[in-house]
C-alpha cells in the first residue's frame, strides 16, 4: 500500500482541529507566534520524516538487533540516519523555548508529531525522545550551568539521554532502590550501583549520553523520601563544553526483547572502578518528585505510542481486508461466484470496526489529555487548576487503557491477515511484539489502576472526578439535542451515575479502613472509567461529525464512519462497564480471598 | 523451578479420574485390555519424555529456525532425538489397533498425553502428531495396500506425514482450491499445484513423507464437491515397501513465523516437472468429507495444544510470583518492612486466578469433548448418537474458545513477569508467540463461530443443544444440593435460559431469511456458549471438590482451590454472557451496517 495511507492524517486533523480546536492555544503568550498553519506544517514535516526515514528500516532493525562488538553497541546505520533527520528538523527541541533554539510547540502538537514516528518505527524513535525527556526534566530542575553543559547539546541533537530508575531487584518498587551517591570534595558525588532496563543506555549515535540516575545519598532516609536525582554523563564534560575523559559507567549487558528490538536495552553498572562522577540536580532527596514531574507526560507518551502501533496495524489490516479475496457469504455458497473481499465478511468488518473504535477513541483521549498539559499556560488560574487535576486523573487511564486496548487491536489485525499475519513477511506480528512492552513499562498497568483508584479518583474529596463528570455531562447535553445521538447521550449519562456510585462505594470502604479489599479490584475500576472516558471522546467526535453531516459537508463518508464507530462502541463496549462496576462496588473477593496454597 | 512442576499432573488426574471417570471406558470391548493403571502408566511415560526430551530444546529451536542448505531442510539435532523417543515409546501409534502394533488407547488419554508434549514444546510435537493424523485418516479410508505401504511405516515412526489443504490464494476457502489431478494409465494421478502453510512439509527426520493432498480431478464439479484426497509421497514406494525414486514434490520456500519456529512450515509445489504421482484415497470427490472426518479430533487437538501453552505459562508465572519480591500493600508503605512476594499483591493474585480459570476450565472442556470421541465405542446406540451430536456442537467451542482464552492467559503470564516477561531470557514471551497461531489455523475462530451458530447449534432442530442443556441442567441439580454451590447452580441455570432464548431469536431470524444479519454476531454467540460450557465444567469440578472436602480428604488445599476458582469464574467471567446474548439476540448491527467507504 501507499505508505502515506499508513498514517491517517485526516483523522488526526479532525481530532485536533474540528473536535479539540487546538488552535485556541495560540491565544496563550507561549504559543502566540504559532497558528493552525504552523501546527500543520510541523505535523506534515513529521509525517514526511516518519515515512521516509523511520518506516523503511522498521523490519530491518527488528531482524538486526543491536549487538556488542569490542564493548561497543552496534546499530544498523539507518537508525542513526533517521535520528539525525529527526534532530535536524528540530524535533529534538520541539517543546523547548525559542530562545534555546526550540520550536516552542504545544505539547499536544508535539505528541501528535511523535505519534507518527511511533507508528512508523517504535524502536528508533526511542533514542531521540528519551533524550528529549531528559532535557525537559533538566529544563525544570537543573542549574543554568547544568543546562548549558548537558541540556543544550541534547536540544541540538548532539547528546542523547536516559532515565535510570529500575534496578535488577527493584523494578516497579523504587522505594527499594540501592544505588548510592557519596559526596566528594569538588561538590560532585561518587555514584555506585546497577541499573536495569535502561533503554538507549549505550550507543554511538551522538557525542555523549546524559544518564539521569536516581540514587540515595549516604545517610538519606529509607524509601522514596531518600532518593535524589543525578546527572551522570557517559563522558565527562569540561567547563567549556568540550568532552573530557570517560566516566565510570559500564555496559554490563544487553537485554533481548520480544519486540522493539532496534531499541537497545541495557544493564548498566555505575562506579565499578570507584570513580563514577554524578552531579546532583536541584535539591537532595527530591529525586522522585522531580522524576514524577515528568511522569504524566511520559505516561501519555506510552499510551500514545501504544495506540499508534495499533493505528498502523489497523491501517495494514484495513488495506489487506480490502484487497484479499476469500470465501463467500453464509447464504451464498455457489463456488462459481467470485470470492468476496475479506472486508465483506461480517466478522472481519467487526474486527476492523473494533480496531477503529480502540484506535481513534484512544487517540482522542490521548490528545485530549495532552491538551491539558498545554492548559498550564492559560492565564486563568481556575483553568490551570482544573486542567491539572483532570490531567492527574486521566494520566493512568491514558497509559493503561490505551496500552491494553492497543494490544487487542494488534491482535485483531493479526487475525484478519490469517496465516500471513503470523509470518514475519507481513508487518502486523511485529506491531504486536513491539507493543507488548507498553502495559509493562513506566509503571505496570496494575500500578496505574492503584494510582487511579487509590489516589487520583478520590483525592481532594473526588475533585478531579467531579470536573470530569461535569465535562461529560456537558457533552451529553450537547448530544441530547441531536436526535441521532440522544439515546447515546442517555446511555453515557447512566454510565456516569455508575461511576459515581461505584466510587462512593469504594470511598465508604476505604473510610472503614478496608484499604486492601477496597482496592483489590482497581483493575476493573480502570476498565470502567477508561471505557467511560473513551465513550465520552466518541460522543464528542460523533457530535462534531453529525453537525458536519447536517451542514452538508462533502466528506460525508468520513463523518458517517465516526458516527457509526461511536454507535458500535456504545453497543458492544460501553455496556461492559456494568459488570466492572458491580465487581468494584461489591468488593468481589474471590481472587482476594484465594490463598497461595490453593493454586 | 523443578521441571516436573511445569506439568500439573495432580489436576490432570483430578479431571480424568475424579471428575470424568475415564476408566469407565475400560468396559468397552476396544479398551478392555486397559485399566486406570495402564492409562496412568502411559501418561507418566509421556510426561517423562516431554520433560526430558522435548522441553530442554524448546528455546533453542526457537532461536535456531529450520533453514535450507543445498535444498534440504536443516533442523537442530534435538528435534530428531525427541521425535525418535516419542515414536520409540509407541506414541506414533497411540490410537492404532494393537494388531497393528498400536497402544489402542482411548482418544481422551492420548489427548492428555499429547497435551504434555504440547506444553513442553509445541513446535517439535508437530512432526509426529501430523504424521499420526495422516495415519488415522488412512486407517479409515485407504485400501489395505495403501495402509501397508504408507500408514504402517508412520505407526512405526519411520515415515512422516502432512495435510495439504491450503493454497496461496485459498486459505480458509477450500472451495477455491486449484490443485489438479489427471488420471494416468497405471491408475495413479498426475498432481499439479501449489500448497501453502504445510507444516512439516519437508525434513530429513524419517525415510519418507506422506503428503495427503486435496486436489480436483479434471472435470470434477466446482467447489467443495469436486475435491478428492490423494496420497502423494515424497519418495515413491515400491510394491515391496522399499523406497523408489523421488516424487515430483518441490520445496518452494519456507515461511518464517512469529512463533513455533522449530516446526518447519513450507510452501510446496507438486508436479513442476509434470511427473508428480498421487494415489486416490477412497472414492473420488469425497476429499472434503474425508478430511472433515478427522476435523473434530484435529480441532480438539488445536484447542488442547493452545490451552497447554497457557498451562505452562501459568505454572511459570505462578512460580515466579511466589519467588519474586517486590513492593508492599497499599496500606503499608514503610520501606523498612520486607518486600512482598508478587503473589501477595491482589492484582497479581487476580491474574493468576484468571489464568487458572482459563487453563483448568479449558482443559476440563477439552477432555470432556475428547471423551465423546471414545463414546463411539459404547455398545448403546443412543449413547453413540448423543455423544456424536454433542461432539459436533462442542468442537468449534473447544477450538476457538480455548485458543482465544489461552492467549489471554499467556498475556497475563507475561504481565506478571514484568520487564523480564518481555525478554527472551524468560519463557513466557515464547509461549505467547507459539500460541498465536491457534486462533488462526484449522479454520479461523471466525469460521468456528459460523460453524457453531450457522450449523451446529440449530442442526436437527437444535438436537445437540438440547442434549447439552439437559446435561448442564443435571449438573445444576447436583450442585443445587450442595449449600456452598447452590447460588452458582442457579446462576448457571439462568445462563442456560439465556442460551435458549438467544438461539431461538437467531432461529427466528434465519427463518425469515435474514441469514447474513442473523449470523453477523456469531463470534459473540461462541463467547456466550463457550463461557457457559466452561462454567459447567467448573461447576462439575467444584461439586467433586466440595464432596472431597465434605469427606474430609487430606488434600483440602487442592480442592479449596477448585471451589474458589469456580467462584471466580462465576463472579468475573460468566456474567459477560449477558452482553454477548443481548448483541446476538437483538442482531446488533453497527458493524454489519458499516460501509467500506466509512472506514
Automatic annotation (TrEMBL), chains A, B:
Q: Which InterPro entries match?
A: Acyl-CoA_dh-like_C_dom, Acyl-CoA_Oxase/DH_mid-dom, Acyl-CoA_Oxase/DH_mid-dom_sf, AcylCo_DH-like_C, AcylCo_DH/oxidase_C, AcylCoA_DH/ox_N_sf, AcylCoA_DH/oxidase_NM_dom_sf, Diverse_Acyl-CoA_DH
> Does the record's keyword annotation contain Cell division?
no
Ranges where the Acyl-CoA oxidase/dehydrogenase middle domain occurs? 163-261
The record's section on Gene3D superfamilies has:
Acyl-CoA dehydrogenase/oxidase, N-terminal domain, Butyryl-CoA Dehydrogenase, subunit A, domain 2, Butyryl-CoA Dehydrogenase, subunit A, domain 3
Question: Which keywords describe this protein according to UniProt?
Answer: FAD, Flavoprotein, Oxidoreductase
Q: Where is the Acetyl-CoA dehydrogenase-like C-terminal domain?
A: 469-594
Q: Which GO terms describe its molecular function?
A: flavin adenine dinucleotide binding; oxidoreductase activity, acting on the CH-CH group of donors
Please list the cofactors this protein needs.
FAD
What are the Acyl-CoA dehydrogenase/oxidase C-terminal domain coordinates in residue numbering?
A: 286-451
Q: Does the keyword Translocase apply?
A: no
PANTHER family assigned:
ACYL-COA DEHYDROGENASE, ACYL-COA DEHYDROGENASE-RELATED
Give the family this protein belongs to, as stated in its UniProt record.
Belongs to the acyl-CoA dehydrogenase family.
Tell me what this protein is called.
Butyryl-CoA dehydrogenase
Biological source species: Tahibacter aquaticus
Amino acid at each position: 500500500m501507499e505508505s502515506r495511507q499508513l498514517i491517517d492524517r485526516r483523522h488526526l486533523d479532525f481530532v485536533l482541529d474540528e473536535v479539540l480546536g487546538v488552535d485556541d492555544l495560540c491565544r496563550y503568550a507561549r504559543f502566540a507566534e504559532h497558528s493552525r498553519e504552523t501546527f500543520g506544517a510541523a505535523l506534515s514535516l513529521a509525517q514526511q520524516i516518519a515515512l521516509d526515514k523511520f518506516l523503511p528500516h522498521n523490519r530491518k532493525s527488528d531482524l538486526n538487533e543491536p549487538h556488542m562488538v569490542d564493548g561497543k553497541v552496534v546499530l544498523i546505520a539507518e537508525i542513526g540516519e533517521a535520528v539525525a533527520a529527526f534532530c535536524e528538523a528540530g524535533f529534538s527541541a520541539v517543546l523547548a523555548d525559542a530562545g534555546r533554539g526550540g520550536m516552542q510547540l504545544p505539547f499536544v502538537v508535539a505528541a501528535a508529531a511523535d505519534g507518527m514516528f511511533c507508528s512508523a518505527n517504535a524502536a528508533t524513535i526511542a533514542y531521540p525522545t528519551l533524550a528529549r525527556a531528559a532535557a525537559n526534566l533538566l529544563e525544570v530542575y537543573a542549574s543554568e550551568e547544568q543546562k548549558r553543559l548537558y541540556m543544550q547539546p541534547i536540544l541540538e541533537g548532539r547528546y542523547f539521554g536516559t532515565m535510570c530508575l529500575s534496578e535488577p531487584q527493584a523494578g516497579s518498587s523504587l522505594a527499594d532502590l540501592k544505588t548510592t551517591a557519596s559526596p566528594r570534595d569538588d561538590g560532585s558525588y561518587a555514584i555506585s550501583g546497577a541499573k536495569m532496563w535502561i533503554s538507549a543506555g549505550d550507543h554511538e549515535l551522538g557525542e555523549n549520553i546524559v544518564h539521569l540516575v536516581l540514587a540515595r545519598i549516604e545517610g538519606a532516609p529509607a524509601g522514596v523520601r531518600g532518593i535524589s536525582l543525578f546527572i551522570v554523563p557517559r563522558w565527562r564534560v569540561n567547563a567549556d563544553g568540550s568532552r573530557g575523559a570517560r566516566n565510570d559507567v559500564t555496559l554490563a549487558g544487553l537485554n533481548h526483547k520480544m519486540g522493539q528490538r532496534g531499541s537497545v536495552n541495557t544493564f548498566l553498572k555505575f562506579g565499578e572502578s570507584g570513580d563514577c562522577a554524578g552531579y546532583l540536580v536541584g535539591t537532595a532527596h527530591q529525586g522522585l518528585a522531580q522524576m514524577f514531574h515528568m511522569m504524566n507526560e511520559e505516561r501519555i507518551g506510552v499510551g500514545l505510542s501504544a495506540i499508534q502501533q495499533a493505528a498502523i496495524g489497523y491501517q495494514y489490516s484495513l488495506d489487506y481486508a480490502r484487497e484479499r479475496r476469500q470465501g463467500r457469504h453464509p447464504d451464498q455458497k455457489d463456488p462459481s461466484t467470485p470470492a468476496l473481499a475479506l472486508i465483506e465478511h461480517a466478522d472481519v468488518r467487526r474486527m476492523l470496526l473494533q480496531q477503529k473504535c480502540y484506535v481513534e477513541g484512544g487517540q482522542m483521549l490521548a490528545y485530549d489529555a495532552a491538551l491539558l498539559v498545554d492548559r498550564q499556560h492559560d492565564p486563568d488560574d481556575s483553568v490551570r487548576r482544573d486542567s491539572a487535576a483532570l490531567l492527574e486523573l486521566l494520566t493512568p487511564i491514558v497509559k493503561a487503557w490505551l496500552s491494553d486496548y492497543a494490544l487487542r487491536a494488534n491482535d485483531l489485525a493479526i487475525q484478519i491477515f490469517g496465516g500471513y499475519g503470523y509470518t514475519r513477511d507481513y508487518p502486523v506480528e511485529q506491531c504486536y511484539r513491539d507493543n507488548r512492552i507498553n502495559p509493562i513499562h513506566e509503571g505496570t498497568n496494575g500500578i496505574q489502576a492503584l494510582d487511579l483508584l487509590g489516589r487520583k479518583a478520590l483525592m481532594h474529596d473526588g475533585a478531579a472526578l467531579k470536573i470530569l463528570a461535569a465535562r461529560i455531562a456537558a457533552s451529553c447535553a450537547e448530544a441530547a439535542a441531536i436526535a441521532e445521538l440522544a439515546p447515546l447521550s442517555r446511555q453515557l449519562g447512566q454510565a456516569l451515575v455508575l461511576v459515581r456510585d461505584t466510587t462512593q462505594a469504594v470511598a465508604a470502604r476505604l473510610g472503614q479502613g478496608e484499604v486492601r479489599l477496597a482496592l483489590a479490584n482497581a483493575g476493573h475500576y480502570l476498565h470502567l472509567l477508561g471505557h467511560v472516558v473513551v465513550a465520552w471522546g466518541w460522543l464528542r467526535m460523533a457530535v462534531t461529525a453529525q453537525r458536519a453531516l447536517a451542514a452538508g459537508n462533502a466528506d460525508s463518508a468520513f463523518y458517517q464512519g465516526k458516527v457509526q464507530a461511536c454507535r458500535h462502541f456504545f453497543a458492544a463496549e460501553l455496556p461492559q462497564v456494568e459488570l466492572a462496576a458491580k465487581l468494584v462496588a461489591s468488593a468481589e473477593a474471590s481472587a482476594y480471598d484465594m490463598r497461595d496454597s490453593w493454586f
